[in-house]
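Bug report (template v2)

What were you trying to do?
Predict the complex of my protein with fe (iii) ion.

What happened?
Run completed; filing so the output is reviewed.

Input:
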Amino acid sequence: MKLILENIKELVQVDPKSRLWVAGKSMSEVQTIKNAFLVVQDELIEDFGPMEKLGLADFEGDDLIMEIDCSGKMVFPSYCDSHTHLVFAATRELEFVDRIKGLTYEEIAKNGGGILNSAKRLHEMSEDDLYTQAMLRLDEIASMGTGAVEIKSGYGLTTESELKMLRVIRRMKQHSPLMIKSTFLAHAFPLEYRGKREEYMNLLINEMIPLIALDELADYVDVFCDWGFFTMEETDRILMAGMKHEMKGKVHANELANSGGVQVGVKYNALSADHLEFVGDEEIAALMGSETMPTVLPGAAFFLNLKLAPVRRMIDAGLPVALASDYNPGSSPSGNMNFIQTLGCLKYGMTPEETIHATTINSAYAMGISENYGSIAKGKVANLFITKEVSSYAVIPYSFGSNLIETVILNGEMQ
Ligand code: NIG
Ligand code: FE
């Protein structure tokens, strides 16, 4: 099957060099082709260029050709959302109301709300129901432009429930057209392990991780290294256990305090260090020259009124930055990457170009897939979206709350 997109007003995020990430000053330049075509063969991008170079005659004789006229519309590579917790049992709007009335996120967590609340609800819900609900969320984010997503466990906390979550994610991988990566997340100490941290560490390292590895249920291991959650030393041990089982690390780091999480992540060549509200010169120095993608989660900072990660300083220092949604019921109940771009621009002083790199190629790197996703390059997977008729690409972050995406193509197929 050949799909030919014609008369594209502007083909955005073209990268013939297929860079694996884009850093520093280069983030402010996005390559585009005006009045372009793009050819998809089966699930891959076969060719693209200016319209005058499209030789339709070359395709005569090919069967099953579909042409789409994109006049006035733009084409982008799908968003890669490298950090979500979108398998969950219930929304947590009561905590949202409690916070409006003055309670803090930390106070809610201490009283058995937060992650522990989600764990309780997840324990009670069947695997089938979790799957059905999470698939609806995938449909929703796909319609808003996301074509690849990383999904974490971490609302299970017990071995049984963590495995249940990861099995749900595996089933989603089998049935969804989105590219999905799964991550085992050491998220919090359950109430019954208060004062018995070592026992829980033992369970994580000697039971959960080996069982997960045995069944190949997770691609990566992540740890919430922060004030009130896992310490640097505990994070180190969990990432080491993951490494022993060939699972690369990721970290939730420096959201609530200068936790040292960034440095531990870098030590283990973590794919990404995420959140980064409490980042200063030391963390920036640690990230420089590392293989770890600094990943900022504007949705969580917006929803929890957190101080903002120093994105401008990181980019000016020459670092790459990725943006992801953190879609979860407690700190960021939205997977809308268009809105994440808006927040990137308005709250973090990023240009629209910087947010395009941050939500495509850099976030693809943060989930280990940038060789095949995250930009328009020959041979990459044809995960694309076509916008409605728009005036320029800056109108996407500008039009917050609107969905300007008209057509979604995943693996070369219109959805
Ligand atoms: O990435 N920060 C830690 N974990 C999640 C939120 C967990 C929750 O509140 O349910 C996050 O923001
Ligand atoms: Fe998270």
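What did the reviewer find?
The first strand starts at residue 2 and ends at 12. The domain at 79-366 is CATH 3.20.20.140 (TIM Barrel).
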